[in-house]
Amino acid sequence: xxxxxxxxxxxxxxxxxxxxxxxxxxxxxxxxxxxxxxxxxxxxxxxxxxxxxxxxxxxxxxxxxxxxxxxxxxxxxxxxxxxxxxxxxxxxxxxxxxxxxxxxxxxxxxxxxxxxxxxxxxxxxxxxxxxxxxxxxxxxxxxxxxxxxxxxxxxxxxxxxxxxxxxxxxxxxxxxxxxxxxxxxxxxxxxxxxxxxxxxxxxxxxxxxxxxxxxxxxxxxxxxxxxxxxxxxxxxxxxxxxxxxxxxxxxxxxxxxxxxxxxxxxxxxxxxxxxxxxxxxxxxxxxxxxxxxxxxxxxxxxxxxxxxxxxxxxxxxxxxxxxxxxxxxxxxxxxxxxxxxxxxxxxxxxxxxxxxxxxxxxxxxxxxxxxxxxxxxxxxxxxxxxxxxxxxxxxxxxxxxxxxxxxxxxxxxxxxxxxxxxxxxxxxxxxxxxxxxxxxxxxxxxxx
Length: 448
Description:
Distance between the termini: 69 Å
CATH class of the largest domain: Mainly Alpha
Low-confidence stretches: none
Shape: extended
Number of domains: 3
Number of strands: 11
Radius of gyration: 34 Å
Number of helices: 12
Structural class: alpha+beta
CATH topology of the largest domain: Trigger factor, domain 2
Strand content: 15-25%
Mean pLDDT: 90
């Protein structure tokens, strides 16, 4: 039996549940008899163990199971009768005051889902990103593809692509091989010495002072120079200290990028080496990537607008659950990157804001979908998977990958559902097109 629902806060409620002790005892005895049929003990055949021994061994466990079942059943009936949508799990605590003789009482404290009221979409203001893929972007991308296929020749030696010119000194873009030794106060330090060490000048792999000490040298030349390690340098033993390095240049290789010709086109998968086909293929890939990023930006704008026009309280228990999920996801990600997360603090407050946004959006989206019948339709899911498959060499394998696993297909359904919501909101709200530069959209990745 449960008392009337008490309102403790905006979303917090409490119900007091009472359970007749006789009912509990009767159920415990019933379950003990069932358990006794299979219990084994030394000196007794199975099913012949004295009930007293069975009760001693299993009584406490079964009593807890019965109480959990009785309280859970009463709680479910009470929330159902009062038409309450419980968020998360209730906190059950034994009640000791004002309890009638022969009964057990428990307080069930819980939160309920809020009433979701989505604001007037006509008042929502949304920026829709637009980006143009021009010949300049295609040229930049082709240059990046060329840099990815760069190869090196020894400077000064004749090769199929020349000798690298008459300047035999090391400069930015060259790959140099050096021996080096570093000392601090005249003493070599760990990691400060190497032979035959190769790196490309200008890529920022080495500290700027180290690269500056290498530039201008010729093969066989040596140079000694001071180098100050930054205070935040990853090597704690040398961070903030000044070392003296001596380097000897062993080899210089100049970089040759492939020409944009038929062979280059073939290396990109254009079988006949047609350059116009290659450019068309690059453009198609760029437009696909731009489309995905534009959709993502527009979706973010829609979600921001939905949050802005929809005000309601979010159950703390759902925020806590999502916070813990985000923390665990971060732990797993860092572990996969080789980091020792056991040594790192994980303050929950770092994730709370993101968790609340995700929960709030989830509640809003569910309401919009339900109110406007925006569920993902099978044909939409199939079309989305087929779109994914277009960018792969064997589309049939991609289709099989998704349609053979219900969880994977569920991920696609979630994407389609979000897109349905985005399109619905765009059709109801004030939309302003915002032209964005290609490089800005791509996060300057186009710069190489």
